[in-house]
Amino acid sequence: MGAQKMMESLAEVLDGHRWEELPALLHPNFYCRYVHTGETFDRDAWVLVNAQYPGFQHFVLQECVADGDRAAGRAHVTGISQGRLQHFEVASFIAVRDGLIADMTEVWTDVDEVAPAGTRPA
Q: In a 10 Å sphere around its CB, with 0-12 CB exposed, 13-18 middle and 19+ buried, how is residue 106 labelled?
């Protein structure tokens, strides 16, 4: 399966909370890095962090660009925290090897954040 289809399949599985299907998309030597926190995960740890993430609601892939065995995707993610709906954006970059996602880098941001005053041009 190519990188475009793998990114789309990943999004469908995450959005559907189909955690039992997630390992089948990931290479045995899967590695994920969260740039924003510096955390790294192997396959089992990344499946677990997703399956146990408190309040997770939806993962909607909004854009995907692929070339061969690599893809970059942008998704909108929602979750409930302290009774409040939160919105996030995530950029995911994957590399496919042997038909499975082998490497992933993700960058997350909370879209409810407000830019500091005085940092934007008028």
A: buried
Which pTM value belongs to this model? 0.89
If one counts every other C-beta atom within 10 angstroms of the C-beta of residue 46, the result is 22
Ordered per-residue pLDDT tens for the chain, 122 residues: 799 999 999 999 999 999 999 999 999 999 999 998 999 999 999 999 999 999 999 999 999 999 999 999 999 999 998 999 999 999 999 999 999 999 999 999 877 666 566 555 55
Query: In sequence order, which residues have a C-beta less than 8 Å from that of residue 109 and are 6 or more positions away?
Result: 36, 88, 89, 90
CATH placement of domain 3-110: 3.10.450.50
CB atoms within 10 A of CB 65: 12
CB 97 within 8 A of CB 2: no
